[in-house]
Amino acid sequence: MNSVLITGCNRGLGLGLIQSFLKLPAPPRHLIATCRNIQQAEELNSLAQQHPNLHVLQIDLKDIEKYDQFVAQVESIVQDNGLNVLLNNAGISPKSTRLGFVKSDDLVDTFVTNTVAPIMLTKALVPLLKKAAEVNPAVPIGPQKACIVNMSSILGSVGANTDGGLYAYRTSKSALNAATKSMSIDLKPNRIMAVALHPGWVRTDMGGSKAPLSVEQSCIKMVQTILQLNENHSGKFIQYDGKELVW
């Protein structure tokens, strides 16, 4: 695999995914990590000093007007080989979870971060994904060719919702799931696949201390699952270990 781009890598799952990709026997030639503030991403910067294939780029994903500039930075790294994997990981979850406490500002802010930004960033990076697919004509559809992975959550599943609440987070992830399905259809002629990925219930700032999975456990499994993706997975909603989930 030539290149992987992961958003939201200063901590949590993003940082864990970077660490897991770096530990592969054959890590990506270019592993691109984004964060909002490079100065505060101490652990990420330390990894970049140890691994010349790790590139740390600063971007506020809500600043959509800066995407063209960001794409130019990515292109300067991957060059004519294009981008093989885009992993839209960055996301937020507000504290207003129950209907009586929902705030419109939280709904809008969460939707922009969790849904609008991944859609618009994917749109901006499609030319580089197309280039990766074109320069690997004999490679089967999958992460070695061109693949979009949108970090979703089982909380975005309508069918699995038995607890209610979490309006901002649930609706933003449900919308991202719908967008993922559309991407898989729209980009199929270009031999670019798209999947929605649930990391499991993980011990992060968002998941809390009672979650059964550590960041390392989840990320190791997610990387293994991503590497095994093929055309049959495109447009599907799967979890960290590859199990398909209900929409």
Low-confidence stretches: none
N-to-C SSE string, H for helix and E for strand: EHEHEHEHEHEHE
Gap between N and C termini: 30 Å
Sheet with the most strands: spatial strand order: 3-2-1-4-5-6-7
Q: Explain this structure to me?
A:
The chain is of the alpha/beta class. The protein has six helices and seven strands, in the order βαβαβαβαβαβαβ. A seven-stranded parallel β-sheet has the order 3-2-1-4-5-6-7, sandwiched between helices. β6 (193-198), α6 and β7 (237-239) form a beta-alpha-beta unit. It starts with a strand and ends in an 8-residue tail after the last strand.
How would you describe this structure in keywords?
single chain; 247 residues; alpha/beta; seven-stranded parallel β-sheet; 13% strand; globular
Indicate the topology.
Blueprint: E1 3-6, H1 12-22, E2 30-35, H2 42-50, E3 54-58, H3 67-78, E4 85-88, H4 104-135, E5 147-151, H5 167-186, E6 193-198, H6 215-227, E7 237-239
Parallel strand pairs: 1-2, 1-4, 2-3, 4-5, 5-6, 6-7
Helix pairs in contact: 1-6, 3-4, 4-5
Short description:
39% of the residues lie in helices and 13% in strands.
